[in-house]
């Protein structure tokens, strides 16, 4: 069982589920992004999803786009991702997944990326624009380096594709809560329940819901049927507005939804 | 299998579907509808009738003897897509996709546009079919193409000025995809070139293949043989794939794509994706693209907004890879000179995009000599480029170039 699955299962056995925090690497600076990641774990986050800034992030809404663009303007380089993962892992014990669009991995070299991520202490990848159908190279590299691979399942996914996502994923399946992109929403779609229940029917034992979750109440609600809740834009907004202290405060508040 | 029979999703190692899972159902639905339409005589008949009565097809070919004097005496034949309704080849694809969208029960069309030609064509189709239309256009482009923005609005479309990223065409595509992910139930994304995830590269090519099918017959009828070379400009590559496709299995015919070399392919300011790009994933497909070492997309440069794109359709990447087509760079200066030459020798003002192909034809003519026959895709007319051309040639401030004779 991978460290991510282990963490999720421990939290589930304790009667709740995991809180997963997305933060972009290099925003507002590389140092502060590392401090923010450490701070949210110290305030109740179970698993980190560190985002790799990319020039064309089609799955991301305005808040995250703006942050990753800032990181790129500040000179973010791919190698910084491994440094960041290493520094976070040295400070806290939470598993660290990297969220990345596919082209940077392809350019770095899929196997080389996997090796360097493993060496840095990373747990695996979440790949928003890589579907299992196109992922053969990543499947072999992740097997070879013992890394998790998180694929997405959407409300529009067919039963066949749900099953495919369950079979191809390791760690968890990312249940997309709504037809849309990242960003806080006042109510997480009822669609999320449907996706999770269909994933369960396909044999899924580990699924976390993301997109649109921004309050402790939503976290609690999601954890009543899923194994984890993923929060991104809300934390990025907090980091933009009030720096590390504010993102720590918001993380602690969100974590109250896991109790 | 012949080259013409390759229908994706892969062209060699290029193509595929690198998109969020949320879009897969829509792509599957579109692919199924397209496969059904492809073999449905009623669909073909409806599209052909629209082209006859609305687009103005078949488009003619025009021989350009005075222009050809500058091309080593080779015969140059122009396939006149500039005479189509809305002024370019773009309408071929737009009407095909709008018909498909109607079959799928979609009520809303979204599109990206750089210079505005595809946006205008999409807004036109939406008006014709009574559909809602939203066009995403980089804020940089809405500023420099204000007239086309007005045109789209007059046709009833909403134009969204995209403020993200580099605020140009590539970001307009990103925003259109974000819109599509959220509104896929009632919305069709009318992608304007042979790029993007499958089935777009195949489908858009097929809708434009009428350019090559018509002109292959027209050249045969006029000259009694196939041309020695076919030249077309390549940004995303839709008019080029459209005219190349009919000739893919005619081994004697050279297929030459002309890319925008901007200030020169050895400068940082160009859009020569095939000449200078590396394999990568952009906008849903694996193809060639301009990118830095980390795989971040680089900004392209061309005087022609329609070629100012850091990616290219996967079928072109493949045709280059297997050596079936060749791709060359044409600088801004070379294209503008060819634009002026065609205007003055033949009375046809081409789009700046098209002028890249015309420069290519001049060079090819010199290589082929007087026995050569070159078919050129005259993909669009230059009306939209008057402001750029007037500035470039300083025609409005009273110190422009000489009014007559200077073309020879």
TrEMBL record, chain A:
Catalytic activity reported: (1S,2R)-1-C-(indol-3-yl)glycerol 3-phosphate + L-serine = D-glyceraldehyde 3-phosphate + L-tryptophan + H2O
PROSITE patterns in the record: TRP_SYNTHASE_ALPHA (PS00167)
Keyword Zinc annotated: no
UniProt-listed Enzyme Commission number(s): 4.2.1.20
Keyword vocabulary terms for this entry: Amino-acid biosynthesis, Aromatic amino acid biosynthesis, Lyase, Tryptophan biosynthesis
Record-level Gene Ontology MF annotations: tryptophan synthase activity
Pathway(s): Amino-acid biosynthesis; L-tryptophan biosynthesis; L-tryptophan from chorismate: step 5/5
Name of the protein in question: Tryptophan synthase alpha chain
The encoding gene: trpA
Automatic annotation (TrEMBL), chain B:
UniProt function note: The beta subunit is responsible for the synthesis of L-tryptophan from indole and L-serine.
Record-listed N6-(pyridoxal phosphate)lysine modification sites: 90
Recorded metabolic or biological pathway in which this protein acts: Amino-acid biosynthesis; L-tryptophan biosynthesis; L-tryptophan from chorismate: step 5/5
Coiled coil (UniProt feature): none
Molecular functions per Gene Ontology: tryptophan synthase activity
Pfam family, one: PALP
Gene Ontology cellular component terms for the protein in this record: cytoplasm
Catalyzed chemical reaction(s): (1S,2R)-1-C-(indol-3-yl)glycerol 3-phosphate + L-serine = D-glyceraldehyde 3-phosphate + L-tryptophan + H2O
Organism: Microcella putealis
Protein name: Tryptophan synthase beta chain
EC number in record: 4.2.1.20
Major enzyme class: lyase
